[in-house]
């Protein structure tokens, strides 16, 4: 009888720890505290390097996450929905872009506030977007331009 109580207590402890871990992981991904945030939309030509749960930063500080990502079949652009902390009010002419943390670092979504006196409302779309820049394509352009300038100089 005492063995059953010990087993039940151990099982309950494992269950509580699992639920606590799930709640912590959900909060870290921006799934909790829905009342403290709002959604904004944006369309990107390329959103390479980021995915669901990626950080949204303003001045290097995490203020939200990427919560939804779909391909628009009409425009062939990546339609993104970001969840932003309600304490962050963005001017209506703000920009959103894919940035890199460095040469070997990962990509994240960066918000650049504009200067208009009116603010984006929940559900609004950020019009000024800049997609991910491919390092490989930049290197190829650089090599190609160097090859072209070397062949015309002879």
UniProtKB/TrEMBL annotation:
<feature type="domain" description="Mce/MlaD">
    <location>
        <begin position="37"/>
        <end position="114"/>
    </location>
</feature>
<dbReference type="Pfam" id="PF02470">
    <property type="entry name" value="MlaD"/>
</dbReference>
<dbReference type="GO" id="GO:0005548">
    <property type="term" value="F:phospholipid transporter activity"/>
</dbReference>
<dbReference type="InterPro" id="IPR030970">
    <property type="entry name" value="ABC_MlaD"/>
</dbReference>
<dbReference type="GO" id="GO:0005543">
    <property type="term" value="F:phospholipid binding"/>
</dbReference>
<protein>
    <submittedName>
        <fullName>Outer membrane lipid asymmetry maintenance protein MlaD</fullName>
    </submittedName>
</protein>
<dbReference type="InterPro" id="IPR003399">
    <property type="entry name" value="Mce/MlaD"/>
</dbReference>
<dbReference type="InterPro" id="IPR052336">
    <property type="entry name" value="MlaD_Phospholipid_Transporter"/>
</dbReference>
């Amino acid at each position: 009888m005492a063995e059953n109580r010990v087993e039940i207590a151990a099982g309950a402890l494992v269950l509580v720890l699992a639920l606590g871990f799930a709640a912590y992981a959900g909060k870290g991904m921006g799934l909790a505290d829905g009342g403290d945030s709002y959604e904004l939309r944006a369309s990107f030509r390329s959103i390479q390097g980021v995915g669901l749960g990626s950080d949204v930063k303003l001045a290097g500080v995490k203020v939200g996450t990427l919560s939804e990502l779909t391909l628009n079949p009409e425009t062939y652009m990546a339609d993104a929905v970001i969840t932003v902390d309600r304490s962050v009010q963005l001017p209506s002419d703000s920009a959103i872009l894919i940035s890199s943390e460095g040469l070997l670092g990962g990509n994240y979504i960066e918000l650049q506030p504009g200067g208009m006196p009116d603010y984006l409302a929940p559900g609004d779309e950020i019009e000024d977007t800049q997609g991910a820049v491919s390092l490989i394509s930049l290197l190829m352009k650089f090599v190609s331009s160097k090859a072209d300038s070397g062949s015309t100089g002879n």
